C-alpha cells in the first residue's frame, strides 16, 4: 500500500498546479454540512422536521475528532445504538434488537447496500475506510419500504467524502502501545470539469494484549466526478479492500478474571478481499425534478477458520472437538434508478425507483478434527486451555452449494403537506427474491422465492418553530440468509453417517413497528432534545439455539416483542463547552418460542422470557471542551454505559454490564495536528459480550475487552481554500 500514498502525494501536487487559476466556482465541500438535512430516510435531501422516523447524523466534525481505530468508536455515539466490538474491527450490532449477528440491519455505502440480499454479513463494516467518511446517518427501526429486506432494526448509511474544489491533502499515522499502527492519506481537488477524491489506509496489529489477535487491513477508495454540464453529472466510485485477521475468540471465566488474555486456538482466522465499483449518472430536469441511474458491481471473497465454529462438549469425550474451514465468494451485477418529482400542490414530493440485482454465490465448508487440552478442574465443568488441529478433512463437506440470487424491486414514497405544519409520508416497496441453487451434499437443485410488499405511513407535526412531533407505522422483513438455508443441520452430514438435512423450510422474519417521537430546541438552539418511543412485534425471527456441545441450531421463533425509549440531549452553553447525552431503555422478549420438543425437558417454550444479550439500558455521553485561551485545542471525556443482561435463553445467569470512560485530546498548529485517545481510561475489567449455553453445567464465554489503551497520532492537513 506504500505506492498508494506516493500516488496520492503526486496527484495532490499536480492538482495544486492545475487549480491556481480557478477561484470563482462554489466550494462543494459545504453542501451536506447542515445537520438538519438528511438523505437516508427518504432517499432524497429532507429536513429533519419533515422526516417521520428516528434518525441521527454523525457529522464530519464528530468523525474527525473521534480519530477512531474501528467503526464502533464512532457509531456508538448515536442514541439507541450499541455496536459491539468483536476485536480487529469485527462487530455485532444492537439497534432495537438484542446483540446479534442476524440479518436485521442494512449497511449502505452512499445509499447502496454493501452486501446483496441474502448474503448478509455482520462484519461488513470492517471493509469501510474510516478516513474516507464525510458523515454517517443512522435510521432506527424498519425502512424496508424504501430499502428492502434486512432494513429492520436499523439502517446505517456511510456517506463518502466528495471531491473538493480547492486542492486538499491529508497524511497521518497513528499507533498504540499494543502493537497497532495505521498510516492514512487522502487527496482531493477539481480540475476543470473533473473532480476527484482518493483515500487510503493501511493498518497492522501485531503482538497485542490478547494472544493470537494480529490483523492487517488495506483500503483504497477512489471517487471521480465529471460535470457534463450544469444539470448532468457522471460519478464513479471504486473501493478495493484486503483484510486478514487472527480470530482469537473468547476466554473462560477464570482466565477473564485473572486477566489472562490467552486465546485457546492459534489457527482460526478470517480473511476478506472486496471490490465495489459503481457508476452513477445524475440529471436535474428542472428545479422540481431530478433522476439518477446507477450501475454497480461487487466482488467479495470471504474465507474463515472460525473460532465460533469450534464444537466441544465438557461431558462427551472432552479431549476432542470439531471445527471447520469455509469460504463464501460472491459477485453482484446490478442497476438502480430513481426519480424525484416535486409538485406545488400540497408541497408534494414523490420518490420512485426500481432495482435489479443478480448475485451468483459459491460456498463450501469442510470438517476439521481438533484435540482439546483441558484446564484443571472437576470433570464436567472443565474448560479448554488449547485446541490443536489433528486432521483436516476437505472430503467431509459441511456445506457445498452454488446459488444464483435474483432480486427485483420497485418502490415509491410520497410526502405532502395537506395543512400548515403537518407533513404526511406514505411509502411502499415490493421485493421479488429468487434463489436458483445446486446443493452438492444432497445432489438437489431447485429454487426458492421470497416475495414481499412492505409499507409505511408517518406524519410530522411542527406546531411551533422550535418543537415538533412525529408518528409512524412501518413494516420490515428479512428472508433467511442462504448460508443458513444450506447449512447441514446439526447431527447430520459430515462424518456422522446420517444423511445431511437442511433448513429449506426456514421462514422469512416479519416485523410491525409502531413509533412516536419528537424534538425540541431551547435557549436559541443551545439545547436540543429528541426522543423516540417504539413498539415492534416480530414473527419467525431467525434465532440461534446454542446446544450443549456449543454448536448452533437455527429456529424460526413464533413471536417476539421489542419495545423501548431512545433519547438524545445536546447542550452547548457557549463556544467552549458541549454536553452530549444519549441512550435507550429497552426490553426484548419472547412471546412464543418453542425451544424444545423433548418431553423430558423441564423448559420447552420460552414465552415471556427475555431474549439473551439484550441490555435493558445502554448509553453514550460526552463532555467536550474547546478553550478560548488555547485556540485549535480540544479535549473530551466520553462515558459508555451498558446495563445488565441475561447470558442465556433460559434467563438463569446475568452479566452486570459495565461503565467505561474514554478521553480524547487534540491540537492543531498550522497544518499539523497532534492527538491522543485513551480508551478505557480507568483500566476496567469488562467484556464486550458474554454468552452461555442453556445446560446446567454450561460455561460462560467472555469476549474480553481491551485494557487501558493509549493511541497517539499526528496528521498533516494541507488546503489551498481561500
From TrEMBL:
Could you tell me the superkingdom of the organism this chain comes from? Bacteria
Alphabetic keyword roster: Cell outer membrane, Ion transport, Iron, Iron transport, Membrane, Receptor, Signal, TonB box, Transmembrane, Transmembrane beta strand, Transport
Q: Where is this protein primarily located? A: membrane
Extract the signal peptide range.
1-17
Which parts pass through the membrane? none
| UniProt topology in membrane | Multi-pass membrane protein
InterPro entries from the entry? Beta-barrel_TonB, Beta-barrel_TonB_sf, Plug_dom, Plug_dom_sf, TonB-dep_rcpt-like
- An annotated GO BP: iron ion transport
Q: Where in the cell is it found?
A: Cell outer membrane
Residue span, TonB-dependent receptor plug domain: 49-155
GO CC terms of this entry: cell outer membrane
Q: List each copy of the TonB-dependent receptor-like beta-barrel domain by range.
A: 223-681
Q: Which family does it belong to?
A: Belongs to the TonB-dependent receptor family.
Report the PANTHER family cross-referenced here: FERRICHROME IRON RECEPTOR-RELATED (PTHR32552), TONB-DEPENDENT OUTER MEMBRANE RECEPTOR (PTHR32552:SF81)
Q: What is this protein called?
A: TonB-dependent receptor
Q: Which organism is it from?
A: Flavobacterium sufflavum
Amino acid at each position: 500500500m506504500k505506492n498508494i500514498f506516493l500516488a496520492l502525494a503526486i496527484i495532490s501536487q499536480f492538482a495544486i498546479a492545475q487549480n491556481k487559476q480557478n477561484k470563482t466556482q462554489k466550494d462543494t465541500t459545504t453542501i451536506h454540512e447542515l445537520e438538519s438535512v438528511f438523505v437516508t430516510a427518504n432517499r432524497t435531501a429532507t429536513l429533519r422536521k419533515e422526516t417521520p422516523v428516528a434518525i441521527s447524523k454523525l457529522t464530519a466534525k464528530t468523525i474527525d475528532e473521534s480519530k477512531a481505530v474501528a467503526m464502533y468508536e464512532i457509531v456508538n455515539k448515536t442514541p439507541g445504538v450499541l455496536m459491539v466490538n468483536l476485536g480487529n474491527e469485527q462487530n455485532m450490532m444492537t439497534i432495537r434488537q438484542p446483540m446479534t449477528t442476524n440479518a436485521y440491519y442494512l449497511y449502505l455505502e452512499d445509499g447502496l447496500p454493501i452486501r446483496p440480499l441474502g448474503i448478509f454479513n455482520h462484519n461488513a463494516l470492517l471493509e469501510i475506510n474510516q478516513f474516507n467518511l464525510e458523515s454517517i446517518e443512522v435510521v432506527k427501526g424498519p425502512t424496508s419500504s424504501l430499502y428492502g429486506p434486512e432494513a429492520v432494526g436499523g439502517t446505517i448509511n456511510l456517506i463518502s467524502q466528495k471531491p473538493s474544489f480547492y486542492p486538499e491533502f491529508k497524511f497521518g499515522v497513528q499507533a498504540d502501545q499494543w502493537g497497532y499502527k495505521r498510516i492514512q492519506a487522502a487527496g482531493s481537488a477539481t480540475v476543470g470539469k473533473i473532480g476527484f477524491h482518493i483515500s487510503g489506509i493501511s493498518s497492522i496489529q501485531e503482538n497485542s494484549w490478547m494472544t493470537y489477535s494480529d490483523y492487517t487491513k488495506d483500503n483504497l477508495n477512489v471517487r471521480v466526478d465529471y460535470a457534463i454540464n450544469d444539470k448532468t453529472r457522471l460519478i464513479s466510485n471504486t473501493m478495493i479492500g484486503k483484510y486478514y485477521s487472527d480470530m482469537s475468540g473468547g476466554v473462560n471465566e477464570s482466565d477473564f478474571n485473572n486477566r489472562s488474555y490467552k486465546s485457546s486456538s492459534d489457527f482460526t482466522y478470517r480473511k476478506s478481499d472486496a471490490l465495489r465499483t459503481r457508476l452513477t449518472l445524475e440529471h436535474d430536469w428542472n428545479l422540481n425534478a431530478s433522476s439518477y441511474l446507477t450501475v454497480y458491481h461487487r466482488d467479495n471473497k470471504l474465507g474463515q477458520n472460525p473460532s465460533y465454529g469450534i464444537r466441544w462438549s465438557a461431558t462427551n469425550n472432552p479431549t476432542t472437538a470439531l471445527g471447520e474451514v469455509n469460504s463464501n465468494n460472491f459477485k453482484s451485477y446490478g442497476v438502480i434508478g430513481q426519480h424525484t418529482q416535486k409538485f406545488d400542490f400540497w408541497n408534494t414530493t414523490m420518490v420512485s425507483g426500481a432495482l435489479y440485482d443478480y448475485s451468483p454465490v459459491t460456498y463450501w465448508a469442510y470438517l476439521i478434527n481438533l484435540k482439546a487440552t483441558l484446564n484443571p478442574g472437576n470433570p464436567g465443568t472443565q474448560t479448554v486451555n488449547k485446541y490443536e488441529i489433528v486432521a483436516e478433512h476437505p472430503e467431509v463437506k459441511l456445506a457445498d452449494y452454488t446459488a444464483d440470487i435474483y432480486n427485483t424491486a420497485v418502490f415509491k414514497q410520497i410526502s405532502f403537506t395537506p395543512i400548515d405544519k403537518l407533513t404526511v409520508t406514505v411509502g411502499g416497496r415490493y421485493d421479488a427474491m429468487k434463489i436458483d441453487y445446486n446443493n452438492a451434499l444432497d445432489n438437489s437443485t431447485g429454487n426458492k422465492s421470497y416475495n414481499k410488499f412492505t409499507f409505511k405511513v408517518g406524519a410530522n407535526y411542527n406546531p411551533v418553530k422550535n418543537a415538533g412531533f412525529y408518528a409512524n407505522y412501518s413494516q420490515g422483513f428479512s428472508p433467511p440468509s442462504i448460508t443458513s438455508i444450506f447449512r447441514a443441520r446439526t447431527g447430520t452430514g459430515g462424518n456422522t453417517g446420517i444423511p445431511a438435512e437442511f433448513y429449506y423450510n426456514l421462514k422469512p422474519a416479519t416485523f410491525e413497528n409502531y413509533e412516536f417521537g419528537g424534538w425540541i430546541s431551547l435557549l436559541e438552539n443551545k439545547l436540543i432534545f429528541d426522543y423516540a418511543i417504539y413498539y415492534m412485534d416480530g414473527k419467525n425471527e431467525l434465532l440461534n439455539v446454542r446446544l450443549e456441545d456449543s454448536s448452533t441450531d437455527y429456529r424460526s421463533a413464533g413471536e417476539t416483542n421489542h419495545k423501548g425509549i431512545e433519547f438524545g440531549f445536546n447542550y452547548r452553553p457557549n463556544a467552549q463547552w458541549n454536553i452530549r447525552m444519549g441512550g435507550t431503555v429497552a426490553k426484548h422478549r419472547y412471546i412464543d418460542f418453542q425451544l424444545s420438543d423433548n418431553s423430558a425437558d423441564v423448559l420447552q417454550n420460552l414465552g415471556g422470557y427475555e431474549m439473551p444479550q439484550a441490555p435493558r439500558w445502554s448509553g453514550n455521553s460526552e463532555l467536550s471542551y474547546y478553550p478560548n485561551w488555547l485556540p485549535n485545542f480540544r479535549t473530551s471525556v466520553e462515558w459508555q454505559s451498558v446495563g445488565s443482561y441475561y447470558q442465556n435463553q433460559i434467563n438463569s445467569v446475568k452479566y452486570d454490564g459495565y461503565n467505561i470512560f474514554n478521553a480524547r485530546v487534540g491540537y492543531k498548529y498550522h497544518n499539523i495536528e497532534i492527538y491522543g485517545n485513551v480508551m478505557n481510561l480507568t483500566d476496567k475489567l469488562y467484556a464486550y459480550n458474554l454468552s452461555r449455553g442453556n445446560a446446567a453445567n454450561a460455561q460462560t464465554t467472555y469476549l474480553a475487552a481491551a485494557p487501558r489503551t493509549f493511541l497517539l497520532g499526528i496528521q498533516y492537513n494541507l488546503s489551498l481554500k481561500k
